[in-house]
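pasting RING-type domain-containing protein for the record, 341 residues
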Amino acid sequence: MSIPSTLLNYETERVKTFEGRWPLSWMDMNLLAQTGMYYTGTDDTVKCNFCGVEIGHWEEPDHPVLEHMRWSPNCPLMRRRHTANIPLDEAVLDRILPPATSVDGGETEVPNIWSQAHPEESFTQPIRFLSHPEYAIETARLRSFAEWPRTMKQKPEQLADAGFFYTGIGDRVKCFSCGGGLKDWDESDDPWEQHALWLGKCHFLKLNKTQKYIDSVIAKFKWSKKSKMKNDDSNTSSTSIVFSDNEHSSQELEAAKDDELNSIESKRKGGSFELRDKCRHSDKEKTIPDDKVCKVCYVNEYNTAFSPCGHIVACVKCASSVTKCPMCRQPFSNVMRVYFS
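structre below
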């Protein structure tokens, strides 16, 4: 017999759905109930009373909050929005839930949820949460471009590959990782280059393209800007504009970019930077040994390391879409790009 959802607003009632029936002794049923879950009675499947997500096939040491955020990143309870939830202890729930994410379009770093529930296994650094985790997977970003203007030179595949999803307004796109947005695209604008030029601090960008690439793009833009001042007929331009929930004036953005360009120029000792934008799809065209293939997508070669566990098992794109190491299942504090000789 089904239980009314209004009754399941009470944590005490959600706990009762587990009692005497929950099959996993190592998974804390009280923690599941605290975070909005109740037992469906089927295998090890639980369901959130406030967002409706169902989660099953649990593995040690899966954490209820991390899995909840992974599969339902916009759950109102996880996002600390208003719900009808009636907890047993509000103070305990407050310590378990992730802090409210920022609204300024930037990345948000939050205290380690794992360490709150398991202090004996705590880590020293915070876990990084994405600005738009629902678009962490590239296919999800691609789906957002269903209404993308067909006249645009930038194609959905290019934009999604560079971490962007479509906002549904004009030609505005946003990065799922840093939350920064770009608009007013020129025909010659390259998504990766514009990402590097305007959103150079993005973690996803640095993981995929490295700081050297970002510096070279900025240097290239500075050189083209100087050339354009000497020759107004120059075809080289870059007019993508950064936007966020808090709009800045174009003058402020231009001044900020000039400061960044001057900083890069001052660090150069001579010569010119070379853009080395290697094709990210090249790995798919060659045979990758089984012992080096990404253990998430099984398509690309693994090239990232999770910290602090140190496991190297995922490619850059897959590493950006998970919340814990695929090997040891532990939450991580950082992801680093690795290179093999």
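Residues 297 and 318 are 7 Å apart (CA to CA).
The chain is about 30% helix and 10% strand.
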